[in-house]
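Dear colleague,

Thank you for sharing your sequence with our group. We've completed the structure prediction you requested, and as agreed, I am returning the results in plain text so they can be pasted directly into your records. Please verify that the sequence below matches your submission; if there's any discrepancy, let me know and we will rerun it promptly.
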Amino acid sequence: MTDRIAVIDDHADSLEMLREALSPAYQVETFGDPLIALEKIKAGGYSAVVTDVMMPGLNGVELMGKLLEASPNLPIILITAFGTLEAAANTIKTGAFDYLSKPLNLNEIRLVVSNAVSHFHVAEDSKMIGAKAKEELNVSNVIGKNEKMLKVFKLIGRAAPTNSSILIQGESGTGKEIVARSVHLNSPRAGKPFIPINVAAIPEQLLEAELFGHEKGAFTGALFARDGLFTEAQGGTLFLDEVGEIPLQLQPKLLRALQEHEVRRIGSSVSRVVDVRIIAATNRKLEDLVAEKQFREDLFYRLSVIRIELPPLRERREDIPLLVEYFIKKYNSQHNKQITGISKELLSSIEAHDWPGNVRELENFVDRAVALATGPVLTLNDVELPASRKPQSDWAKSLPRSLTLDELETEYIKHILTIYDDNYVRAAEVLGINKSTLYRKLGKPKK
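Please find the predicted structure tokens below.
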């Protein structure tokens, strides 16, 4: 659909010149009376406005103020005579997108209007995405009325408009990526890419190329040149999940990208400037990794300019009924069911459970319950709760006193696997490590 541009000027020859300059690229509508233009434009449907400043009845600056009250994202371009150029420049601080000085240059007009239309579409997309983000922010993995969650909401709102790096910490399943997306979608970068990468899921030898790109022939298998994720996320946000797993030898290059805002492909001697916001997440305490010399202290501080701590579900049990209600509605739609509620007995049991997999585990449980339900109300007969964790005291007492620290760690991992019936994903979540680390600690190949 062709963008509509409104042009306002009390001189007919100026209107005709602007129409010719902007057609046929745009659908141009001209107005000689600013008051008539005001009512028509307020009704919507325009991508930009070009208006003269000096007009009888309502000057261009006054018209701009009234239009921006109705449509804050609408770009308005002011046309001014040379003598009022300084005044027009000052009006940009109060909302004008740009200004053009007389005598008008047709190429400049086309360029400024093109930029204005592009700005309008990005702003409108961001507004729509922002509305979606606000919805996500109050549902799914970050719904809640718990005091800790309310602090998280406020911190997200304060952090989103900035360009500061953010570190999100919390156990697996607490909703770290949902929070990262909400920050991005409520930021000025909302119209640009949000690119997530699970650092732990990428083989160490390929992670550098994935992040920074490579030249053709830089290593075996590099059959062509490729941009890395930093370049692909240009203008947007790069989400580094499980950042604590990034290899120590790669950390200096990540630090340089954060400090200097430039990256270099593997095999290249040329650096590229990048404008990317970094949001990192981890289920581990990076402070502990710093103390163990497994994570650079300077990188830690660079990543954690703003820190967001997500509490586990067991510390926000009052949010469980809200989450259950939301997930029932969500999976009613997916499973073509009409579940209207949940029995007090089942809800009480759910609230009492520890949920070591946090909100992700609770969501999977409700999904299963809705799918298997035989009536309009979920009951204990529809689904069994996950097995509770077994007491660890008896297990600990049965261990030999001569175990080394490494042997003790291995025995504990085996104990957790026994509790969760050799479910490696669940065990890794409970242990606060990723599955790859779990296999490595047990000396087993990845499945």
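Summary note from our side: Residues 106-137 form the longest helix (32 residues).

Kind regards,
the structure core
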